[in-house]
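Appendix B, example 12.
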Amino acid sequence: MADHRSPTRLNDLFIGIAGMIGAGKSTLARTLGEHLDLPVYYEPVGDNEYLADFYRDTKQYSFATQIYLLNRRFQQHQEIIWRGGGGVQDRTIYEDAVFARMLVDIGLMEERDYRTYLSLFRHMSNFMCRPSVIVYLDVKPERSMERIKMRSREVETGITLEYLQALYAEYNRFIEDISRTVPVVRVDYDRFRDAEEMASVIEREYLDASFLRNARWEPTRA
C-alpha cells in the first residue's frame, strides 16, 4: 500500500488559496508553487476589463463583473484539471459566490441577478472537480484595509471598511459551509514570519490529516 505521506502525492495537489482582499493570496500562492513544484494560477486583476467600473459604480456593474469573474475562474479551474499534475489557484471559483451574496446583502446587487448568477454557478459546478484542499487566510477587515492602502492599486481606492466588514462576515459563513465537503486549512497570516514558513506548515497540516472526502460544494445561502 502506498504511503499517504509520499511527496509524489503533493505534486498532484490542487490547492485553492482563499481570503479577503489584500490577504496575501498571491504571495502565498507563488511560494506554495515553488515549495511544492506546482504551477500557479493567479487571479485575473490587471486584465480585468470590468474592475475599474465595478469600483467606480458598484451597483451598476456588480452583476456584469461577477459573471465575468465566474467565467474567467471557471476557465482557470478547468485548465488545472485538464493539464493534470495539480496546481495552486490564487482565489477559488467558490469565493465568487461569497462576493455575490455580500453584494446582495449590502444592496449593491439585485436578488434577481443573484439568482441568475447562482443558477449559472450551480450548472458549472456539475463540470468541476473540487480542490484537494483550500487554504483560508484569515485576515480581519482592518488588516485587509491596511494592506489595500499599502499596495495602492488605483482601482481599489474606493473600497471602504464597511465593505470589507460585510465581506468578512460572508467569508466566515462560506468557510463554515465549504469545510463540510472540502478540507480547509485556516491560517492566521500574521502568526507567521514569511510565506515560506507558512508553506511548510500547510504541507504538514495537509499530510497529517486524513480528511479528504468525495463531495461537491454548492453555496447553501440562496
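The two ends are 43 Å apart (CA to CA). DSSP finds nine helices and five strands in the chain.
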